[in-house]
Design a protein that fits this description.
This protein is 56% helix and 13% strand. The chain contains 31 helices and 20 strands.
Length: 758
Amino acid sequence: MNAALEMRRKLRAEFPSPAATPAAQTAAPMSNQRMRGDRLETSVDVKTDKPTMSRTAAIFELQGSEPRATALFCALIQSCGQEFPVKTLLNAIPAGGLKNQPDSIIASMANLGFYVTEHRFDWERWSFSRQPVVLDTAIGPQLLTADLSGGLKSGRLASGTESRVVESGARELNNLRCWVFRFESASNPLSPLARTHTSYSWARALLARFPRIPYVMILLSLALAVTGILFPLAIAVFFGEVIRLSTFSTMPQLVVGLLMLATFETVFVLQRAKISAWLASRLEFLVNTSSFAQILRLSPMLSERAAPTTQAARLRSFESIRDFCSGPTFSTLLDLPISLLSLVFVGIVSLPALGIITGSIILMMTVFLLAWRKAAVLTSIAADEATEMQRLAIETLDKLDLIRSTGMQEVWSQRLDRVAERDQTAQLRLRFTGQVAESLSSALYTFAIIAVMAVSAVGVWQGAMTGPALLALVIVSLRILLPFQTMCLSVLRFEQIRRSLGQINTLMDLPTESQAEREKNRLMPLTGAISLVNVGFKAADTRPVFVGLDLEVEPGEVIGIYGANGTGKSSVFKMILGMVDTTLGAVRIDGVDIRQLPLHELRRRVSYVPQSPKLFPGTLRQNLLSANPLATDMQVRQVLGSVGLLTIIDRLPDGLETNVLGPDDDRYSETFRYQFAFARALLINSKLFLIDEIPNALLDGGVGPILDRLLQEFRGKRTVMFISHRSDFLQRADRVIALRYGKVPLVNKPQTIMERAS
């Protein structure tokens, strides 16, 4: 711990940010900057207490980042002209910290919302744009920025804490891999703005990020098409020369030719399968991470109303697509170009055979389209019935005691039977549709091959065709019809994929918390003043929970909130934090409507103790620093001591470095979690404290004295709003809000509210 403190002091005193550019000076107008040689030092602005880049760098290094990578990353952020809170920067860093390699820096910039593109560096092109560029050099990643002091076309190349001026046309930089970072949403093909121009769905725009893959797959399929025609021809020649004519002189050459064709085809097939597997895995990663990010960006009111099973189903939507792309069905469908090219060969050999195969393809496609249309309807019905069955099963388990106590077992069983029967019937009809499509396609496939053999045999009898040509024609016909039969066999899978893509597109098109306009409004330090102007709250079924809440909270005032279960006590806090849309009335903090404030930054500025505190995976220190990454070890120990946890944590073998296995880690009691939640809230050091309802058993134990002391110490200094049913705690409030379901809340002195409640 002392070593960490010493490192922090040293880094704060000695670690400067890398070279400044005009863009960097524009990006941090509130900072005081001065140059020392090739290094930039940035100090804290006393009015906003905004952390410096050097201070941020110190935190990064304590998190495991390498010094050179940290310096380059900080310089890159400055040169791109964007400002981010420290917590946002920390959250963007990959696990294990920044390393002196491009991947970690690229991943961090992408996590911050930059659209990253890779190019080959060209000095002439760069001299026009003058954008910050990260170059992949022999000594690791380096940052190239414009340097106006050295000439219109000169640049400054920085690698960590050192930098140098490079003149126009530096040949050693040309053709190096480089990355350009753009923050504009129009640059990202997945952004809503870009998709309005292209009219792409989100999934289609994601595929557009791999523009070269389709061309490679087409080339491989064309190569397979050529081998697909040559292979049966070679077999036919082998049959005619060696077997029918018993000519063995050409046998070695024919065998070598067949082996070469087989080798080429195997190589092409394996390469195509490798690309398909890589693409499927990459798409799955992008879809899953993007889905998680989208769910986190959704309005809490929208995401909290969706059941966890629904959220998990959204994240599993891509599994069927991944299995399809990496499975044999997808590989077979890639052979469609082979089929179309092979039709030319069939037409040259036998026009009647061409007519048979073409007719069979048309019939198979008709079966496929009709079955798919039917499957779309039946899949929707089956999904609804399955959902109803799951809902009833959950309801049965939830009301099991009530069902038994009222003697409704028989009636409830009959209800389950009816729902299960509808569910199984819908599933049966869906599977039957797939079986019909499979049977018809198999019959068409068999009849087509028999018909081709028949007309080819007639051609042989008439002397229009040889036996080897008949053999080649049959082999080619089998390969032509196989992809179309596979489509009919997989008709249910196609519908499943279509629905999965629809679910992904629907999720990614859900409205998120609007931040673009709000981020333009700078949030000043909170004073604790809150205004609730005619505020009301509606439940999910649109019934009003309460209406007409009018309250002016002065800085330093203590407000208690009282009410029965379901009257919206916690919802008041969620409205103040912007986690619930204020549809009735307005909520103002320091005189500003929260709908005009950046919500993420607002939530970071408020000390909040939730109703069910959680511990996140990681160390206890990391859990605390998530509230305030700039806190010193002394501040951490002070808040732990104030909530009675310092001695307990010091007794642990690893102290603050003790790992938390997850939210359900049973090594930490409920009392510990609440004490830790108070420590996190104190570490934020906010002028506004929100404390949700605490169970009575904990108020009678170790948590009650903490709340009691805070209410006394913060009175007149910080605004405190707390929820409680306990009259002994409510008596410590300056005023109490009494919430009544469907009615106007009462706001008065604690004694008056308690007398009216009694």
